[in-house]
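User: Run a structure prediction on this.
Assistant: Running it now.
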Amino acid sequence: MSAMRAAVFCGDGRIEVQRRPRPRPAAGQVGVRLHGSGVCASNLPVWAGKPWFRYPLAPGAPGHEGWGEIAEVGDGVGQWRVGDRVALLSGHAYAEYDVADGDALVLLPPSLGERPLPGEPLACAMNIFRRSDIRAGQKVAIVGVGFIGALLIQLIRDAGAEAVALSRRPFALEVARRCGASEAIATGDMHAAVGQAREISGGTGYARVIEAAGEQATLDIASAISAEGGRLVIAGYHQDGPRQVDMQQWNWRGLDVINAHERDPQVALDGLREAIAAVAGGRLDPFPLLTHDYPLERLADAFAAMQQRPDGFLKATVRP
């Protein structure tokens, strides 16, 4: 069996690039030669070596934002051909090759050329947007502007609504403005940020608020600026322990609280199809948001940058 290079997470921030057997597709699967993968903040605890993970991880895990071209087609797969350029939903994309089910890929249109395209977070953005039920003419608050938050601002503007962005980083606020936010509010002083956001809303709060950072502080801000009868959408990935909410506030305002993390593979695939179509049609432009690119051997540097978030950093990709 031929070999490939793959990142192996060993815990405590250690990542080794090793020679491992190349995975082969089983019946109903395809093998993909990866062109790259996005680096997701949800993987930070894995990189850091949190004790609830077992190390070493499988080669290429937990990379799940891959794109590339089909290199091999398993038995029973009729819709794909070797050479098709695809975004895939898989779990071992920090490597030169990965496998995916034949119904877990979306064809990348030739019009997108060879540009990097981590599809999975685009699918997340589309599904969050759908669950948010945003309507033309609404003012929508986005609390936390990372890659997903910036994509959502683009979608909100395209829907004829107005996005008000809140973030602690000046660079993220600049990104929000470039993506179409009408207002960009710094959250260094939480109480001042809440007051400014509510003033912009006319004092009523926002009918739609999307929390997109996964922190206690952003959840508190999002709750505080939600309108009575509004929809509070949890898009941030909360993974560092329990959260507290002001339930009296939620009760009094009669909020609909939506957890926008989808786990149904078909829903994820539908979101990926919609996202690729939106990129091809110009509704989404993820490319300026991909600010840093690393070779596979420097994957640990990508995680360090994501943890530190230096000025100018928004989203990293890694290339095998």
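Residues 228 and 251 are 10 Å apart (CA to CA).
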